[in-house]
């Protein structure tokens, strides 16, 4: 059952419910990671206090963001399964995950900008939103869009095919499809590996989003941020926050993909929401 491709309604609902649960409960770890990556460091950004700062924009956009991603991903898988030879399956997964990630960023980046500034400053989210609109207009809400694509597109490109591959290998070894718990373990492996690989992109994205119009010493160009970090901090500077990011992505991968698998199965059973292309 866990290997079946759900219909679009099942994918949208499972993605939306899962995203809301996971992002809200793991928000404190993300806050610590953001503060570690901020120019002032963990303690100047607030330390471990107020770890739920910035939760409001997360709650508002997580459900549609996750629904859009899984809608794109599962649709791509279904189309590939129906019309293309099996040898193209990995490329279909990579393409579907990347397309879903980039599309979902259109609504996630504005929330991410507000969330990260709230995490680093502990100023209320609504006050930060008002300040961004006043200083930079709506364009300010998309500060860091390119750097977020640079981080999340490669992450999705690596994580989801790796998750599927891990499930396939496990199922082949045991002779039957993976359970929800096994899928969750595969999600942890895939998420942790992808998280480590993309940490430098995450550091740059955080620096871009935390900067504002006229901020002292702020660098807007992504290559310049990379060069500055390497010059001032060395390679280690590109991996600030790698431990909480690894924890976040491993636990989040297990939690997120395990719950998604569970809700996917439940919604597929509800009213027979199963992809028509499958027997």
Give your account of this protein's structure.
Helix 4 (55-83) packs antiparallel against helix 5 and helix 8 runs antiparallel to helix 11. The protein is built from 11 helices and no strands. 74% of the residues lie in helices and 0% in strands. It has one domain (8-272): Mitochondrial carrier domain (Mitochondrial carrier fold). By secondary structure, it is an all-alpha fold. The protein is globular, with a radius of gyration of 19 Å. The protein has helices at residues 8-25, 27-37, 41-44, 55-83, 89-121, 125-136, 145-174, 180-197, 199-210, 222-233, 242-269. The longest helix has 33 residues, at 89-121.
What attributes does this structure have?
single chain; 279 residues; mainly alpha; Mitochondrial carrier fold; 74% helix; globular
Briefly summarize what is shown.
The protein is mostly helical and 279 residues long. It has helices at 8-25, 27-37, 41-44, 55-83, 89-121, 125-136, 145-174, 180-197, 199-210, 222-233, 242-269.
């Amino acid at each position: 059952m866990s290997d079946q491709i759900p219909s679009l309604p099942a994918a949208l609902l499972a993605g939306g419910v899962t995203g809301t649960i996971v992002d809200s409960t793991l928000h404190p770890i993300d806050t610590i990671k953001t503060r570690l990556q901020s120019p002032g460091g963990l303690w100047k950004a607030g330390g471990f206090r107020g770890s739920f700062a910035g939760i409001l924009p997360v709650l508002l956009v997580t459900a549609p963001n996750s629904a859009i991603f899984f809608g794109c991903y599962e649709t791509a898988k279904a189309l590939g399964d129906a019309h293309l030879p099996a040898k193209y399956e990995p490329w279909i997964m990579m393409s579907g995950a990347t397309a879903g990630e980039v599309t979902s960023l259109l609504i996630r980046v504005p929330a991410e900008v507000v969330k990260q500034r709230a995490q680093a400053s502990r100023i209320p989210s609504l006050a930060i939103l008002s300040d961004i609109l006043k200083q930079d207009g709506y364009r300010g809400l998309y500060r860091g869009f390119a750097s977020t694509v640079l981080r999340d597109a490669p992450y999705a490109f690596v994580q989801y095919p790796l998750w599927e591959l891990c499930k396939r290998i496990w199922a082949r070894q045991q002779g039957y499809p993976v359970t929800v718990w096994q899928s969750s373990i595969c999600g942890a492996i895939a998420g942790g590996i992808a998280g480590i690989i993309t940490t430098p992109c995450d550091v740059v994205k955080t620096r871009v989003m935390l900067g504002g119009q006229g901020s002292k010493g702020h660098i807007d160009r992504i290559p310049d941020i990379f060069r500055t970090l390497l010059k001032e901090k060395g390679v280690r500077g590109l991996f600030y926050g790698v431990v909480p990011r690894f924890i976040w992505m491993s636990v989040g991968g297990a939690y997120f993909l395990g719950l998604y698998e569970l809700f996917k199965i439940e919604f597929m059973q509800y009213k027979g929401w199963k992809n028509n292309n499958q027997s």
